[in-house]
């Protein structure tokens, strides 16, 4: 599993209090599951609850929440863009301590796809698939459509108003 270490590195780089005290960020994985269809091959998905535990944290919770959301947008975007999925996906608990410090626990449901491909020599190659990314809509422009050299339509596209999910066609692949 790669996401727990990726998130840890991101938070340690983003939050100065954690950068100076990295041992105050604990990561625990609970309720782990493997899901495989065996159709055809050994590719599968990890599914688990990631628990982030910040001990003796004295900073503002926004300093953790905002970098966390930025990481999720890239690494588990459906928790943010799917209202039904994200409704109760990100949970937290706070245990107040003395001297304006807290223990903060955040839980996240994460998944990771693992692609297993048989190589020509018969060995298996493992790859952790990246998440589909969002890109800006096409820029505003003037479009023209021609058929047999004749202009048949033209219009100006509106200014972009959001983002779109990149879904490149993966092409033919044989999984083991």
Explain briefly what this protein structure is.
With 176 residues, this protein is an alpha+beta fold. Helix content is 22%, strand content 41%.
Approximate helicity band? 10-25%
* Largest sheet properties: 5 strands, antiparallel
Structural class: alpha+beta
Coarse morphology: flat
Query: What percentage of the residues does DSSP assign to strands (E)?
Result: 35-45%
Q: Can you count the beta strands? A: 9
Instruction: Estimate the mean pLDDT confidence.
Output: 85
Distance between the termini: 20 Å
**How many domain modules?**
1
By DSSP (H or I, 4+ residues per run), the number of helices equals 5
Along the chain, the helix and strand elements come as HHEEHHHEEEEEEE
InterPro entries: Phage_tail_completion_R (IPR009678)
Region (Disordered): 157-176
Protein name: Tail completion protein R (GpR)
Pfam families: P2_Phage_GpR
Can you offer a commentary on this structure?
The protein is α+β, with helices and mostly antiparallel strands and 176 residues long. The protein contains 5 helices and 9 strands. The strands form 3 sheets. Strands 1, 2, 3, 4 and 5 form a 5-stranded antiparallel beta sheet that branches. A two-stranded antiparallel ribbon has the order 6-9. Strands 7-8 form a two-stranded antiparallel ribbon.
């Amino acid at each position: 599993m790669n996401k727990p270490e990726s998130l840890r590195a991101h938070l340690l780089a983003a939050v100065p209090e954690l950068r100076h005290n990295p041992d105050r960020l604990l990561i625990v994985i609970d309720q782990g599951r493997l899901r495989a269809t065996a159709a055809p091959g050994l590719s599968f998905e990890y599914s688990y609850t990631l628990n982030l535990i910040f001990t003796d944290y004295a900073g503002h919770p926004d300093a953790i929440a905002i970098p966390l959301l930025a990481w999720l947008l890239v690494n588990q975007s459906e928790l943010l863009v799917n209202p039904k999925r994200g409704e109760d996906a990100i949970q937290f608990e706070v245990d107040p301590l003395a001297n304006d410090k807290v223990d903060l626990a955040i839980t996240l449901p994460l998944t990771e796809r693992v692609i297993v491909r048989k190589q020509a020599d018969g060995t298996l190659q493992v790859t952790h698939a990246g998440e589909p990314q969002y890109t800006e809509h096409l820029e505003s422009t003037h479009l023209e459509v021609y058929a047999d050299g004749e202009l048949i339509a033209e219009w100006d596209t509106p200014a972009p108003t959001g983002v779109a999910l990149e879904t490149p066609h993966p092409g033919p692949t044989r999984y083991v």
